[in-house]
Design a protein that fits this description.
Blueprint: E1 2-12, E2 18-28, E3 32-36, H1 43-50, E4 58-63, E5 66-67, H2 72-81, E6 82-85, H3 98-108, H4 113-126, H5 142-154, E7 160-164, H6 172-187, E8 191-196, H7 199-205, E9 208-213, E10 216-221, H8 223-227, H9 230-236, H10 242-252, H11 265-271, E11 277-281, E12 291-295, H12 299-303, E13 307-317, E14 322-332, E15 336-341, H13 347-356, E16 361-364, H14 367-375, H15 386-395, E17 400-404, H16 408-423, E18 428-431
Parallel strand pairs: 3-8, 3-9, 6-7, 7-8, 15-17, 15-18, 16-17
Antiparallel strand pairs: 1-2, 1-4, 4-5, 9-10, 11-14, 12-13, 13-14
Helix pairs in contact: 3-4, 3-5
Bound molecules: adenosine-5'-triphosphate.
Length: about 425
């Protein structure tokens, strides 16, 4: 199903700059879509056209199959359903207080007073903004303003959200938190459309990518398709994503197995083929052909190795009790991942859970759970890249707990289960205190 479509879309600014020069695109519902292109390639202008803020000189836009006709009803429909978060939050956040700013959309949509209050307070809490609700937005930091801008859009429950360079003004932790929020919104069905220069972000995050150059779309496809097209990258003046390059090098050296192009760190780890042969020191009575149990791998290697125990067949005994062994592995020593629902947080029980479940690592996902962890002095080991990093830790046999809440719970389960399905590694994942 296509949520937004453009046909022959053209736009020039009053000074004559042709910013969008005939764009034909179809954006599928429920997807994460990235527009990648260098400065001035027309991404922001296209976005302003997509939600009716600008009117094209030529061409048509369709929302959910209906043509945008630029009368009040049609514009109202598209602006309610396709929210846009501007690159510069100062263009968006202008009400006297944060609360009023986030309430702006719901008020305009005619929600009742009680609905507005519920919606705005819920959204502020979700974005970790409750403590700032009475502040004037112009007293906030760039990252905080960005969160207010996004909260204001999310409070209108749009079908699609367009975000122009969403991570641009955020610090690394803030960027990571926003990505979690975007993953969750997408998990709940919101279509997401972002622009970025960041090829690593587009590669790891998007389901579908468009490359823009000089007001035109010059290529589109899945991240794997577009980022391995060197000619397309050259035309778009873009480089390959780092994970892509690392994997190509792993592949070139014959260290990769599996036939999937990895896009995240756990996926790269999964493709690494462990060495077959190894030098080990063996007990003096060892004979060629013996099977040794080398036990669990330790150190740096074990951190990246999903295997519990390593058996080795002795191929050749060398002087000084050193032998060449061929490794065979059995068993998979994956720890577990437990999810703790912070909406049901009970301080009295929490420590009991940690002890009873032998938790080694705690990861906090989402602003709300991080704030709750801080307030209750909970010890948090991982607060960015929580899903990927807990998977990596679980693969090393650690028992991990993700503390999170609301829609982040099914979202986390989904991402971990996707990893389990693809890798075939039996990681246990359960919600500890949920329904
Ligand atoms: N208000 C304006 N008046 C005149 N020209 C404009 C205006 N806004 C943008 N442009 C021009 O339109 C072209 C496309 O700009 P646009 O902002 O859409 O690109 P972009 O890909 O979003 O760039 P960036 O990555 O830097 O945000 C550029 O040549 C830019 O200079």
């Amino acid at each position: 199903m296509v949520i937004l479509e453009t046909r022959g879309l053209k736009y020039s600014y009053p000074d004559g700059t042709a910013a969008v020069k005939g764009v034909d695109i179809k954006l599928k519902k429920g997807k994460r879509i990235a527009f990648v292109g260098k400065n001035g390639s027309g991404k922001s202008t296209l976005f302003l056209l997509l939600n009716g803020t600008l009117k094209p000189a030529e061409g048509k836009i369709f929302y959910d199959g209906r043509e945008l006709v630029y009368n009040q009803a049609s514009l109202r429909e598209i602006r309610k359903n396709v929210g846009i978060v501007f690159q510069n939050s100062d263009d968006q956040v202008f009400a006297p207080t944060v609360y009023q700013d986030v309430a702006f959309g719901p008020v305009n949509l005619g929600y009742s007073k009680a609905e507005i209050e519920k919606k705005v307070n819920g959204t502020l809490e979700y974005f970790g903004l409750s403590g700032l609700k009475d502040k004037p937005p112009h007293h906030l930091s760039g990252g905080q303003k960005k969160r207010v801008a996004i909260a204001g859009i999310v409070a209108m429950d749009p079908q699609a959200i367009i975000l122009d360079e969403p991570l641009a003004s955020l610090d690394p932790v803030g960027a990571d938190e926003l990505l979690d929020v975007l993953h969750e919104l997408n998990h709940m069905g919101t279509s997401l459309i972002i622009s970025t220069h960041d090829v690593d972000l587009a590669y790891s995050w998007a389901d579908y990518v468009f490359f823009m150059v000089d007001g035109e779309v010059i290529g589109e496809g899945t991240p794997d398709e577009v980022f391995q097209d060197d000619e397309l990258l050259r035309q778009a003046n873009l480089k390959r994503p780092v994970t892509f390059d690392i994997y190509k090098e792993i592949e070139r050296r014959g260290l990769a197995h599996g036939n999937r192009q990895p896009r995240t760190v756990p996926e790269i780890v999964e493709t690494l083929k462990p060495p077959e042969l190894m030098w080990v020191e063996v007990p003096p009575e060892t004979r060629e052909g013996d099977i040794l149990n080398l036990g669990v791998l330790h150190g740096e290697y074990a951190l990246h190795c999903p295997y519990e125990a390593v058996n080795a067949r002795v191929l050749h005994i060398h002087e000084g009790n050193w032998a060449i062994v061929e490794l065979t592995r059995h068993g998979i020593k994956a720890g577990g991942i437990l999810i703790y629902d912070m909406d049901r947080f009970d301080p009295a029980d929490f420590d009991d859970f940690l002890e009873k479940e032998n938790i080694d690592i705690v990861g906090a996902m989402g602003k709300k759970s991080k704030l709750m962890a801080e307030k209750n002095s909970l010890c948090v080991d991982i607060s960015t890249g929580v899903i990927d990093r807990t998977i990596l830790m679980a693969l090393c046999g650690k028992r991990c707990m993700i503390i999170t809440s609301g829609g982040m719970i099914p979202h986390s389960m989904k991402r971990i289960n996707e990893y389990i399905d693809r890798s075939g590694i039996a990681l246990n994942v359960t919600v500890l205190n949920g329904n």
